[in-house]
Amino acid sequence: MGIVNCKQCGKIFNYDGSKICPNCRKAEAENFQKVKDYLYSNPGVTVQDVEEETKVPAKKIIEYLRQGKLEVKGDGNYLLSCEKCGVSIKSGHYCEKCTKEVHDSLSGAANSLKPQKTLLKKSNTNKSRTELMKTKERRKK
């Protein structure tokens, strides 16, 4: 463990795997719970409404949505859009169609990187190691 500065408040703390200090993590968890509770009690509100009532910045609320921690309910969501095609989405970065396309293209790329099995020549498949060595010696002569 080392000593690092918190990415949010700048205070020094013992690094424990997180880039933010325990106090900022606690405040983050409280803010998230405020937003979640407000959205649960008031479905269909705008980000500006949530920001005004909870005092949590809109940027942070959108971050919760992008991370998939929260999801917009109902139709007519114009808050988030797919980063690939621009269609309206409820959470995350991509719509279902683009997520599938990205997944398929990554799977295809991964499959193309797998090593191909090489087959031995048919004439050598039934020969013992000794026979193969004798064949090599004869070729040298």
Instruction: State the domain count.
Output: 2
Strand order of the biggest β-sheet: 1-2
* Biggest sheet character: 2 strands, antiparallel
Uncertain runs: none
- Spatial gap, N to C terminus: 66 Å
Report the radius of gyration as a whole number of Å.
29 Å
- Overall spatial form: elongated
Structural class: mainly alpha
Helix run count: 5
**Strands, count:** 4
Into which percentage range does the β-strand content fall?
5-15%
**Rounded mean pLDDT score:** 82
Helix content: 40-55%
The run of helices and strands is EEHHHEEHH
Would you spell out the secondary-structure blueprint of this structure?
Layout: E1 3-5, E2 12-14, H1 22-41, H2 47-54, H3 58-66, E3 80-81, E4 88-89, H4 96-113, H5 129-140
Antiparallel strand pairs: 1-2, 3-4
Helix pairs in contact: 1-2
Keywords:
two-stranded antiparallel sheet; 141 residues; mainly alpha; 5 helices
Give an overview of the whole structure.
The protein is elongated, with a radius of gyration of 29 Å. It has five helices and four strands. It is mostly helical. The longest helix has 20 residues, at 22-41. It folds into two domains: 1-70, no CATH class; 76-113, no CATH class. A two-stranded antiparallel ribbon has the order 1-2. Strands 3-4 form a two-stranded antiparallel ribbon. The mean pLDDT is 82. It starts with a strand and ends with a helix. Helix 1 packs across helix 2 (47-54).
